[in-house]
# Entry
Amino acid sequence: MAANSLKYGHDHMVRLSGETFIVTRGDVAHQARGIHDPDRGRISFPSETDIQADDLLTSAATKRAYAITRATPHVMDDQVTYIEVWYETPVQQAQRMADERARQPTISIDTIEGSIVNLTSNLSNVSQSIGALSNTGQIDAAILTELRGQLGDVIRIATELMNRLPAG
# Structure
């Protein structure tokens, strides 16, 4: 019963004083109304709203843009009563991404002669270089190709983990 009352109260507030947003996911956009709390950087939407992290919001009234960083359904008595989303502005998003790039680890490798190594770039073309290596047999080339694949996996996983670290 308390969940229904909370859901009804929230939905009623959204109808009375909510703000309309354009929710964009990929190439699909729809409207949703929510209660905006700019001081806390969050907006609450009715429970049936189709909204999730990485959606983009644009205020219909102010035309301000927001990137959803987290969407959390609030549950009471096994019922979703409303969805609360946290956002960042494009300026905040650009700053966070710059901070994340600055925190990426520096890797030093000694004694590489006649080669260019860039561990943060796409390694998909490395196989062409391995195939063109002189003085290597097919077994050596296969081992190097396998190691290249493993290194690419390790770099991808490390990058994903770095991107999950909290800012600051």
